[in-house]
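Lab notebook, bench 4. The sequencing result for the construct came back, and we need a structural model before the next group meeting so we can plan mutations. Quick request posted to the team channel:

Model the 3D structure of this chain.
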Amino acid sequence: MTYSWQKQILVTIAALTLAIRAVAEDIPPTSSVQCSKSTGSSKAVICHIQGDAQAPFLQEDMYNAGLFGRALRNTPPGSPEQGRIIQSQREYLQQRDACGNDTICIMRVMKTRHQELIALNARLQVDLPDAEIARFVGNAYVKPIGETNGAKNTQYINLTDRILGAFEQYPPAHVKFADGSTFFWGFRQGNGSVRSIAITDGRGQIQLVGAVDDLPEIHDDMNHGDHRLKSGRIALFVRNSVALQRYLPAVRAWTWADLLGFNVSCNKDAQWQSRCAAVQQYRLPITAYDLHCKARAGQKVLAERCPLPIPASSGRVSLENFRQ
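Done. Here's the predicted structure in C-alpha cell form:
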C-alpha cells in the first residue's frame, strides 16, 4: 500500500497552524500577532493598519511563526543548530521592530524571513520513514482491539496498514532527541482515537512501532482518568528487548502528554504541576512484543505471539517535548 499521497495535502495549512512552545525562556515567540495584546514594536504597527490592508501582514506573520516552530521541532532541543535558529529568529524580530512605522519595510523584512524559513525547513525536513516501517513490520498481522485469545473467526489486521493508516498528517508530528532518535506520532483522519507511533534511532533505523487505540483525554477528569484508561491499548512492536528498555520512557511520556491533550506546560503554574504529577501515576495499558519472533495462525504471521515483559522505567522524558 502506498501512502505518498498523504504527503501532498495541507502543507500550506500546516505551516499556518503549527506551533511549538519555547524550549528555553528566551526563545522568541512563535505565536502570531494578537492585536488584543500587542503594544509597542512592529506588532502594534501591524495592529493599527486599517481594513483589508492588514490581512497580508497577519498572514505573513502566521507563516513565519509556523515555519519557525517547525524548524525547532526538526532540531534536537538544546543543540547548536537549534541555538542558531533561535538567534536568527531573535534577529529577525529586531529587524522588524527597527522598521518603526514603515509598513513597507516591515513587509519586506517579513517576506525575507519567510523565504529564509522555507529554505531552512526544506533542509531540515523530517519525513515519516514509511518504507522503512513497512520493511520493519513485514507481513505481520495483529488482532483487533478487544479481541480475546482463542476467539473464533478472528479478522486479523495487517500491521503495516494499521500503523501507516494512522499517519495521515503531513508533516508528521515528531520530536528529535539529543541522541539523534526521532519519535513520530499520528492519528487517523476522522477517528482520532486510532493513533500510531514510530521511533527511529540516530541512524534512521526503526526501533519500535506502536498501535495506540482508545486513549481518553483526561485533562478535564483527573480523578477518574486511571479507570478510563482500562479500555485503551498501547501495543508496542519492538526490534528487541534492548530497544524496549531504551525507548519505553519516551513512549510513557508521549502517552501522558497525549492524555493531557498535548502542548503541556508542567511548570507553568500549580494547576499544571498537579496535572502532570497526577497523570504520571496512572497505570498505562502498555503491552510489548518482539517483532522478530512471530508465530503463524493458518497463513498469517502474527506479531503478538511473543510478548515481552515491561521493564521498570529507567529514566524520565519531559512531557513538554510533545507538541502538536
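Residues 28 and 79 are 16 Å apart (CA to CA).
Will bring this to the meeting.
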